[in-house]
């Protein structure tokens, strides 16, 4: 990995600043714009890695570009990669103080590229306050609490996968047709009605598709259902080559879904997508017995980091998590409910219904 990119004014280590969208010195405030010239100086490229070769013989880790340390939360099990042994007092993911030193795995794959933070902490605080305010059934105390005080910016581990897919499918395609039949109703009168039937025909076809940057999360620190709500991350267009400047001053989570497991998850996701694509090719009005034979070639991967803002808070005895996409600002979160508000809303609804029914009966 490359070394530091020094501040041109004071020589300190530059850090990525989301608000300035540039490298910025945390000491003297000097700004170095991110440009093609800067990228060339850092000497990195975003490249795809051959999946088959990596699974057969994993590549040696290239390191983080500067000394970093790992700690693991004993509550949520997330592993954080930090710049200092004394930097962490609580887990950035769940807020637990139960964090212990973790032995680094020297054969772990380190990221070659990342999506830098684009939404600043000030912007995301405003958006989270708006999100709180729009939760109608949240307790009033929650809306006035300074919950954004626990805001943390974290880089999460992701895998991206590319593949060429060739698929052949066979199915029975159903075509609707209708006939008219007569019947006697309950009064003994003769009536007619249209009856739908299905004519089944054999059908087959093939398709080719390129899967580009299919995402598989490597995190255990963020709840999957929340993470899916703040996706996508624009990794096909906006990735930057990894350098220590981008992650300096931020917490990085090390993956716990390894490459082999992520590749297996990706294959299952592609199978599901291919089946849906083949299903859409089947002619007719309905279908049955769809069979898909597929083959993947040219499978490649990248290990990347994506930015999220996290808020963890406790209300009552329950811990909640709010996640915001650090690039797009999309927010998803958990929150408690005020049963008093819900009960009042139900009672108001019942009262309104009774009022409407009363007016209808009186007219």
3D architecture notes:
- With 363 residues, this protein is of the alpha+beta class.
- The protein folds into two domains: 1-43, Ubiquitin Ligase Nedd4, Chain: W; 44-169 and 203-343, no CATH class.
- 25% of the residues lie in helices and 37% in strands.
- The protein contains eight helices and 15 strands.
- Strands 4, 5, 6, 7, 8, 9, 10, 11, 12, 13, 14 and 15 form a twelve-stranded mixed β-sheet that branches. Strands 1-2-3 form a three-stranded antiparallel β-sheet.
- A hairpin with a 2-residue loop joins strand 13 (286-315) and strand 14.
- The N and C termini lie far apart (81 Å).
How would you briefly describe this protein structure?
The chain is of the alpha+beta class and 363 residues long. It contains 8 helices and 15 strands. It has 2 domains: 1-43, Ubiquitin Ligase Nedd4, Chain: W (Single Sheet), CATH 2.20.70; 44-169 and 203-343, no CATH class.
Intertermini distance: 81 Å
Q: Unreliable runs, pLDDT <50, ≥5 residues?
A: none
Largest sheet: 12 strands, mixed
Structural class determined from secondary elements: alpha+beta
- Number of discrete domains: 2
């Amino acid at each position: 990995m490359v070394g530091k990119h020094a501040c041109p004014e004071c020589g300190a280590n530059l850090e990525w600043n989301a608000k300035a969208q540039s490298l910025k010195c945390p000491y003297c405030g000097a700004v170095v714009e991110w440009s093609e010239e800067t990228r060339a100086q850092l000497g990195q490229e975003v490249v795809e890695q051959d999946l088959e070769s990596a699974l057969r013989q994993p590549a040696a880790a290239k390191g983080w570009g500067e000394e970093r340390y790992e700690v693991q939360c004993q509550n949520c099990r997330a592993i954080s990669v930090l710049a200092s042994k004394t930097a962490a007092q609580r887990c950035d993911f769940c807020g637990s103080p139960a964090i212990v030193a973790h032995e680094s795995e020297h054969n772990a794959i380190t990221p070659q590229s990342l999506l830098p933070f684009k939404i600043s902490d000030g912007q995301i605080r405003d958006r989270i306050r708006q999100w709180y305010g729009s939760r109608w059934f949240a307790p009033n105390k929650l809306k006035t609490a300074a919950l954004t005080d626990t805001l943390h910016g974290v880089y999460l581990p992701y895998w991206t996968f590319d593949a060429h897919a060739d698929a052949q499918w066979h199915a029975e395609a159903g075509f609707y047709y209708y006939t008219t039949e007569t019947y006697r109703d309950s009064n003994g009168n003769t009536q007619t009605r249209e009856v739908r039937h299905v004519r089944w025909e054999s059908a087959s076809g093939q398709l080719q598709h390129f899967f580009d940057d299919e995402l598989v999360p490597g995190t255990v620190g963020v709840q999957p259902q929340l993470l899916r709500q703040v996706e996508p991350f624009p990794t096909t267009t906006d990735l930057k080559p990894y350098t220590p400047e981008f992650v300096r001053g931020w917490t990085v989570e090390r993956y716990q879904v390894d490459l082999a497991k992520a590749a297996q998850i990706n294959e299952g996701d592609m199978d599901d997508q291919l089946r849906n694509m083949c299903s859409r090719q089947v002619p007719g009005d309905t279908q049955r017995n769809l069979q898909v034979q597929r083959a993947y070639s040219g499978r490649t991967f990248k290990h990347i980091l994506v930015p999220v803002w996290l808020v963890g808070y406790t209300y009552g005895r329950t811990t909640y998590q709010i996640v915001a996409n650090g690039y797009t600002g999309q927010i998803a979160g958990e929150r408690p409910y005020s049963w008093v508000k819900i009960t009042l809303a139900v009672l108001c609804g019942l009262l309104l219904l009774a009022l409407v029914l009363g007016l209808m009966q009186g007219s």
